Amino acid sequence: xTHEQEILWLAxxxxxxATFAYRKGHGIYISLAMTDEDIxxxxxxxxxxxxxxxxxxxxxxxxxFYVVRIFGDKAVSIMKQILPFMGMRRSAxxxxxxxxxxxxxxxxxxxxRARARGKRCPKTANLFVVAS
Length: 132
What we know:
The protein has helices at 3-17, 37-47, 72-82, 88-116, and strands spanning 18-23, 27-34, 53-55, 65-71, 128-131. By secondary structure, it is α+β, with helices and mostly antiparallel strands. It starts with a helix and ends with a strand.
């Protein structure tokens, strides 16, 4: 499969199955949770992640599911690559999450510069955005 085909396949899958989020303490990330272990492993492989997490629900009639997450700059890169292929709702959410990431990153960099100059910087707001 070519890189372009992988991006198109990922866009289709992530449109319906992924969570795109920015969360204080975790940063920006994409999370995929499904009962199809082979598909989650395939995504992990594309993302360059060596392992996935198996979750056994507390409800006995629910199936086990598998989770893979990608964080930081790698998540940003994937979001930017799949964005042109996403529907309106997902595109809006990805853009919102990317904007939060830029805002938080800029605020963090400003705080680091202020500390380097010996100044105090006001704390930034607790941000939590999730799209499922």
